[in-house]
Design brief:
single chain, four-stranded antiparallel beta sheet, globular, binds zinc ion
């Protein structure tokens, strides 16, 4: 599960899709949710 880094909206779109944006705020930076690690990923 990914979440938007700006508004924390869950991203339901496939993260590997090029050019995805947050449905809510249009941000292209997302967090990948993991138990311990928060990895920031950027849409290409
Ligand atoms: Zn957002």
């Amino acid at each position: 599960m990914y979440k938007c880094s700006r508004c924390k909206e869950p991203i339901r779109t496939d993260i590997n899709t090029v050019g995805i944006q947050c449905e809510k705020c249009g941000s292209k930076i997302f967090f990948k949710e993991r138990p311990n690690v928060k990895k920031v990923i950027r849409a290409r």
